[in-house]
Amino acid sequence: MLDQKTIDTVKSTIPLLESVGSVFTNHFYQRMFTHNPELKDVFNLSHQRSGKQPVALMDAVLAYANHLDNPAVLLSAVERIAQKHTGFMVQPEQYAVVGEHLLKTIEELAPDAATPEVLEAWGKAYQLLADIFIQREQQIYQASATKRGGWQGTREFWVTEKKVESSEITSFVLEPVDVQPVADYLPGQYLSIYLDSDRLTHKEYRQYSLSDRPNGRSYRISVKREAGGVVSNHLHQHLQQGDILEVLPPAGDFKLEVEPDTPVVLLSAGVGLTPMLSMLNTLLEESHLASIHYLHACEDGRQHAFREYIEQQARQHFQLSSYTWYNRPLDEDRPGEDYQYQGLMELEPLRLQLLADRENVQFYFCGPVGFMQMINRQLREWGLVRLRSTMSYSGRTKLFEGVRGGYIPARAEDQALLGVVITSIISSAILSASTWGVVSSKSPVQCLILELAICPCPCGK
Prior knowledge:
Elements: H1 4-12, H2 14-20, H3 22-35, H4 45-50, H5 52-66, H6 75-86, H7 92-109, H8 116-146, E1 155-164, E2 169-176, E3 190-195, E4 204-209, E5 219-224, H9 230-238, E6 244-251, E7 264-269, H10 273-285, E8 292-298, H11 307-316, E9 320-326, E10 341-342, H12 351-354, E11 362-366, H13 369-381, E12 385-390, H14 412-425, E13 436-440
Parallel strand pairs: 7-8, 7-11, 8-9, 9-10
Antiparallel strand pairs: 1-2, 1-6, 2-5, 3-4, 3-6, 11-13, 12-13
């Protein structure tokens, strides 16, 4: 733990850091990539060009400095980020490199303020958090390597199937070249891929949600082609059946956790359906006893992925019901058949069905930031309690909310208190890389935990 003098010294630099803003992080990245260009193969450079990563890092630095005296707020965030880092094969020595450039940036941009005392304090603060990540990441690497079908590092997989699911989404089924079993995963987790292609300027890592249930033989990812997306366009255009991908073990802390008699509502928009499909297929495979509601929103029928598959599952499983929203239906889209509702996903018409077992139902949702905000608002208006959520950076819109792993109380006075606390930290919440949530009416108000996702490496996650 840090001594009080170190905490006070770091906190004393907060006004200076706030005054320089992204100048600090832009200088940091320029310095690091100049001296250690090999790290360009780890960082998402498209986020550098767009300005996302420098802004995220600045928010992380400020958030960490503001909460040095209350490290408990970091615990759950550490787990999520550590899971993410294992998908980049982050190693202990890389933390040392990042720490060096962080201190040098402080020294170069603020030579008068960067006294030996200040640099020592920041060095201690950085090393504390880095050590926590290093320890947890080594545990994750070891667990992945020792489980049945597991491995550490990259493993070669064949693309055994490539299937166009919609105008924007294509699925890839991957089977190991060594023809050995593959590790199971929890529905909601993701797979990391590593690309080293002559068609790409840099080596690239990407994470994609697994879009089917575990089967011990193969994995499926379903990738949306993003405008200007270097890797997604590469996969859509160039990756073909028979090609080989280097794959890292499944990871992630967003996962389905329900009892067999728990009603489940799965809500998604756009490519946010990928983890929902994994959850749905797992529930159906396990013959889930309670009701399952699958709700999906997209722009139109051409962008609607897995439509026929979901319709087929709903016919075959009595406990599954499906509802679809098209924002702007095409002339060819059939109301009542291809979709049930037009516009954005408004839940009120389905309130009675979704809350038939109000005391037990759980909601899982995933999609763009605007969708997450809208669903979160509607469920809170219904008086539900938020168990776990991550709402973060997506597309070109920023949502500064770093609340995760806590209960949102149903009592009005507790909601008012939470609003005050969120407001006080809103400017320093780090933006993460994924967007999802879990809401339930089941759990009592046990605690109020605000956890900021702060990454010391700083990968922008």
